[in-house]
Design a protein that fits this description.
- The chain is mostly helical.
- The chain has a single domain, classed as Arc Repressor Mutant, subunit A (Orthogonal Bundle).
- The protein has a three-stranded antiparallel β-sheet.
- α2 crosses α3.
Length: 79
């Protein structure tokens, strides 16, 4: 996804942490993401929703999240 300037957007550090957790652990319930990364409910919900909208994460149930292949590519690209 590109910003209006045409420069690809970089992952926020918190988004990268969520993607790395999902890449390492597989499907996670949102509350487990909160606990494992010491995030608030509101922050986790907002960031997960943003990752879903960018097709980096799949919402496989109302509160279960899984990294997509696009999410894995972004992790590798941002290293």
């Amino acid at each position: 996804m590109a910003q209006a300037s045409g420069v690809p957007d970089r992952l926020r550090p918190i988004d990268e942490r969520i993607l790395r957790l999902l890449d390492a652990e597989g499907i996670q319930v949102r509350i487990d993401i909160e606990r494992r990364l010491s995030l608030s409910n509101c922050v986790t919900a907002t960031r997960c929703r943003s990752l879903v909208e960018r097709d980096l994460v799949r919402n496989s149930n109302w509160c279960c999240y899984q990294i997509t292949e696009e999410g894995r590519r972004r992790l590798r690209a941002d290293r």
